[in-house]
Amino acid sequence: MADDVGLQRDVTVTGERSPRTLHLKLLRKQWQIISLQVIATMALVGMYLEVVSNYVVGSIDHTMLFDTIEILIGDQLPIGDWLTGEGRSGLARFFVPLILGIVVGGGMALLAFQTPKVQQRVKLGFIVTLIVVLVGQLLLSWLTGMLFSFDLRLPNSNELSTLEWPLLMILSLMILFLYLLPVIMGVRGIWGLSRRSIAWAIGFTLLFLGIHAILAFPLINGQLGSYGDSVNVIGAQFSEPTIGIFGLMLVTKQQFALIMIAVLIMVFQESSYGVIRYLEYAYRLPESCKRDPEYVRQMDNVLNTHLKHTFGFLGLTGIATMVALGFHTVLLGFVEDSTGSQWAGQISESIELSLTYGLVISAAMFLSIMALLRFFVPWERIWGLVYARKNADALPAEKQVVDI
User: FRET pair for 22, CA 20 to 30 Å: which of 11, 83, 177, 399?
Assistant: First the structure.
């Protein structure tokens, strides 16, 4: 969106405070917009850390790849261990790279709002700097060597060895940025207002999960040898649920991690896309509507409602998912408490309910029951009564203000 929507200037009278309008220059500084962007950033970081802590650290993280490269070349990589997190344990390996990814993504977002001339200069400066770092020392030593010896020749081995440090540095940064792509593209999409970058961030996250699933597949994992032992394999049979609500255990730790990743992806997607959608709507309004107080008030209501629904509906989505995965636990617990027979206990110990297809059947049963419940419970009428009651409570206060 940053390429399509330019910054708008609000015409103000000198010495007078301008009224609120829906011009992008003012709307982008509104607290609801900034709150949505902060929420999206926090969801992005939480999603990335959740994926890293469960499926990447100690399994396929970047420090293991750096160790393998150092063994192959028989030397240390030029990139510092403090930057890569090498030598640390657990999630601490990603703290400094995560900050680096946020800074790089923020810089790309800032660059997206500059003029095309400034963007061209920055890109040209980056390319020239990369060329100088890569071959600058080689060209300097080679050309000066030929100049002082008056001998036209090819670079010797000592001069070619100057390429080793920049090539290894570029390789190390490429590997590090490859692991940080979801964060870099996500931050760029949130603050740079780019739908494509947001989609890339979600796509790279799902790609990480897909790569882990492929490596954890028994046939492929068995061919990896010693490397396959470090991959966190999710078994076909789940353990006893340890996480739930109201004292009822519904899901395991692994299942809860997947639910958290899914909910954080939805929060990140809805918040970041919501900002772009609202700004595009305001940008396309006629000039008279942008200055109309009624339109400003409607935009405030829409943004406030979006903030409330972000936590309300997505929180209910996470709870509903937990109930769907542990629906057989809910049913068996209800039967056991009501009948007191041993039937529920015997069924609950069945291995079919612990396998992955048992969870799918339980979730399908939950969705089927909820779909049937829609024909008996008029949800639209209930929500209509709730909103009508809410508006009725607000009317007396507005009437008092009018009377005064």
Answer: 399
**Overall number of domains in the chain:** 1
DSSP 308-370: HHHHHHHHHHHHHHHHHHTHHHHHHHHHHHHH--SHHHHHHT-GGGGBHHHHHHHHHHHHHHH
Q: Is residue 69 part of a domain?
A: yes
Q: pLDDT > 70: what percent of the chain?
A: 76
Provide the β-strand partners of residue 237.
355
Q: Please return the burial class of 20, using the count of CB atoms within 10 Å of its CB with bins 0-12, 13-18 and 19+.
A: middle
Q: How far apart are CA 239 and CA 251, in angstroms?
A: 9
Token pair 């220059």 is found at 25
pLDDT tens-place string over residues 80-122:
888 888 878 878 888 899 999 999 999 999 998 888 899 999 9
Sign of torsion, CA 296 299 303 308? Answer: positive
Res. 325: pLDDT tops 80: no
Task: Identify the residue whose tokens are 């494509």.
Answer: 196
How far is it, in rounded angstroms, from Cα 95 to Cα 261? 19
192/110 Cα distance (integer angstroms)? 7
**Domain-located, residue 301:** no
Q: Is residue 88 a part of any domain in this protein?
A: yes
Domain that holds residue 142: 57-233
Residue with tokens 């650290």: 57
User: DSSP 3-state assignment of 239?
Assistant: coil
Which is higher by pLDDT, 22 or 343? 22
Q: What is the pLDDT of residue 46?
A: 92
**d(Cα 47, Cα 261) in Å, to the nearest integer?**
5
The answer as to whether 299 is a domain residue is no
58: left (phi over 0), alpha (psi -120 to 50) or beta: left
